[in-house]
Amino acid sequence: MGRAFLVVIDSVGIGGAPDADKFFNGDRPDTGANTLGHIAEAGVDLPVMAEMGLWRALNLASGVDLGGPKPTGAWAAATEQSKGKDTPSGHWELAGVPVPWEWHTFPDADPAFPDDLVVEVCLAAGTGGILGNRHSSGTVILDEEGARHMETGWPICYTSADSVFQIAAHEERFGLERLLDLCQTIAPTLHAMKVGRVIARPFLGSAEEGFTRTGNRHDYAIDPPSPTLCDWVHDAGRPVHAIGKIGDIFSMRGIDDVRKGRDAVLMEHLGERIADAEDGSLTFANFVEFDSEYGHRRDVHGYARHLEWFDAALGRLLPELRDGDLLIVTADHGNDPSWTGTDHTRERVPVLVHGVGAKELGHVAFVDVAASVADHLGVPSHGPGRSFL
Ligand SMILES: O=P(O)(O)O[C@H]1O[C@H](CO)[C@@H](O)[C@H]1O
Ligand SMILES: [Mn+2]
Ligand SMILES: [Mn+2]
């Protein structure tokens, strides 16, 4: 029995979302945003994913024609229906479950958070106040509020266009465990408001030398609204292995184990799973640094180099797959590094399928990815998607 590997390259959109005008970065609608298209304009070399059909998918999604080789894989452009351009919406829908509710986002105002929420955070933190209380990039707010945090010991609370409540605190001045406890304590209140995630953003450093976020980020996410692909596979008695943020995004529902680390480490984990995952199993991976290190930081050059790193590493892994295995590379939303602001961009995403021969799959829905993985594994699909295999 074959295995399935579902690999999300976080934020690698290909433009063309039909509802991009409903989504914004500041006052500017996302119409015309195209993560891969704009990176390609600046120059990027991706021979492995080009063979899988990446440039054809880009062309199909947004009309950008960069030529490229005749694909040897199957390829599609996927369109999202959930009314959110965030990570949980994208992943849940790829896993067969569109989001049935409107996420709560905080206004881009000063203050951004309601007073009763601030009071609850202060009580849980044991502090006389909070810092921040506005929309911001997570690195910018450390420059702006880090020194005051060191003086007062108050947590830095901020948000973005995403449905998130983020708390940054110094691992030593405030304490890492205390920060995690605080986030866990207030998470039920935020989830009840339909805020998707409370995110702990620990950092180290000093006002003199600057502050740097550490790898101890932790997301406290609202549960998926109904069973996802992970549950379908798990409930059929098959192992489900997570790599990277997948465990957090699905609140570990239907997931047997998770391996974490930076993207370079995650690539090693993926290689190990390709070597040792059981017949009939699902391995579900997320590579987040496209989004967190380059998309939100609006770093076109860095994004291009990370894509090239991923492409070369993927090229080394593909020959290790067994006959009958399926590997899909896709994405959860866009984050055009050439765009206004620092938020995600509403875009279509590529679906590159290795293991079923060369095929143009055309336009598909995010939910079709889940249906296809279930189809490949021979487990019942409970979502609205249709298999494209
Ligand atoms: O700027 P940072 O803190 O990286 O925030 C980014 O990460 C958060 C969650 O993915 C989003 O809110 C996005 O704005
Ligand atoms: Mn994402
Ligand atoms: Mn993001």
Automatic annotation (TrEMBL):
Per UniProt, subcellular location reads as: Cytoplasm
- Cofactors required: Mn(2+)
According to its UniProt record, the EC number is: 5.4.2.7
Name the principal localization, coarsely classed.
cytoplasm
- Which positions are annotated as binding Mn(2+) 1? D10, D332, H333
Comment on bound cofactor: Binds 2 manganese ions.
Q: Name one GO cellular component term.
A: cytosol
Which InterPro entries does the entry mention? Alkaline_phosphatase_core_sf, DeoB, Metalloenzyme, Phosphopentomutase_DeoB_cap_sf
Q: List each copy of the Metalloenzyme domain by range.
A: 3-379
User: Does the record's keyword annotation contain Manganese?
Assistant: yes
Give the binding site residues for Mn(2+) 2. Answer: D291, H296, H344
Instruction: Name the Pfam families for this protein.
Output: Metalloenzyme
A single Gene Ontology MF term assigned here is: magnesium ion binding
> Which terms does the UniProt entry file under GO BP?
2-deoxyribose 1-phosphate catabolic process; 5-phosphoribose 1-diphosphate biosynthetic process; metabolic compound salvage; nucleotide metabolic process
Is this entry keyworded Transcription?
no
Which principal EC class is assigned to this enzyme?
Answer: isomerase
Per the record, the pathway is:
Carbohydrate degradation; 2-deoxy-D-ribose 1-phosphate degradation; D-glyceraldehyde 3-phosphate and acetaldehyde from 2-deoxy-alpha-D-ribose 1-phosphate: step 1/2
Reaction equations catalysed: alpha-D-ribose 1-phosphate = D-ribose 5-phosphate; 2-deoxy-alpha-D-ribose 1-phosphate = 2-deoxy-D-ribose 5-phosphate
Q: Which UniProt keywords apply?
A: Cytoplasm, Isomerase, Manganese, Metal-binding
Q: Which family does it belong to?
A: Belongs to the phosphopentomutase family.
State the function annotated in the UniProt record: Isomerase that catalyzes the conversion of deoxy-ribose 1-phosphate (dRib-1-P) and ribose 1-phosphate (Rib-1-P) to deoxy-ribose 5-phosphate (dRib-5-P) and ribose 5-phosphate (Rib-5-P), respectively.
Q: What is this protein called?
A: Phosphopentomutase
Originating organism:
Flavimaricola marinus
- Gene of this entry: deoB
